[in-house]
Specification:
single chain, two-stranded antiparallel ribbon, 7 strands, 207 residues, alpha+beta, 5-stranded mixed β-sheet
């Protein structure tokens, strides 16, 4: 039997539902839309297939995730968040911003998972973004923002194109710093986007 906190407490209950290892990262991937089982295996590097199967089963039984079959010609089974599961978005954004305080910018040797750029945009800026077409490029990783919706990959006719390395993108999204990126297009529109980003995140003091 799975372990439970056995406390009448909303936080304990939430952790009963999504607190197991890998559960929130599965939810993170599904925040960007339905995924096949194999998609999740590919994107969640390091997860065992038995663990993934268990997490999906538990999340489904708890009403966080559902399964459906895509119509032909795809006819693939996919997992997606329920309305209840999508309600985790604000909490996950705040958790990610809290974690960014002590995580700091990426450095050489850090392994960035496929889709990290779209995930960062969705976490930090997408929800309150002004209307506009933004494209962000970090090496081969490209993600875009169209009227507040995150899109994996490039888009046609972007109004703003931002290029940089992971450290520069971290500085842009977390600290509103433009010093380490190259901006092409409507710089004023980009500054309007950054106005909705969180205030500069200071790392916590360490003993």
């Amino acid at each position: 039997m799975p372990k439970r906190y056995e406390q009448y407490c909303p936080m304990a209950h939430a952790l009963d539902l999504v607190g197991d290892r890998w559960a929130l990262l599965v939810i993170r991937e599904l925040m960007h839309g339905p995924k096949r089982y194999t998609d999740l295996v590919d994107r969640l590097q390091g997860i065992g297939t038995n663990i993934l199967a268990t997490r999906l089963r538990d999340l489904e039984s708890n009403g966080v995730v559902s399964r459906r079959v895509l119509p032909p010609p795809a006819a693939s089974k996919v997992y997606e968040l329920t309305e209840y599961g999508r309600g985790l978005r604000p909490a996950m954004r705040e958790l990610a911003l809290w974690g960014a305080r002590s995580l700091g910018p990426p450095v050489a040797g850090d392994e960035l998972f496929d889709g990290w750029l779209a995930n960062a945009m969705d976490t930090v800026i997408a929800r309150l973004a002004p209307p506009g077409r933004f494209e962000f490029r970090v090496g081969t990783e490209v993600a875009s923002l169209v009227d507040g919706e995150v899109v994996d990959g490039p888009i046609a006719d972007p109004q703003v194109v931002v290029e940089g390395d992971p450290e520069g993108i971290y500085g842009l999204f977390v600290n509103r710093c433009l010093d380490l990126v190259t901006v092409t297009g409507d710089r004023v529109l980009l500054e309007r986007l950054l106005d909705v980003a969180p205030e500069r995140i200071e790392q916590p003091a360490r003993a």
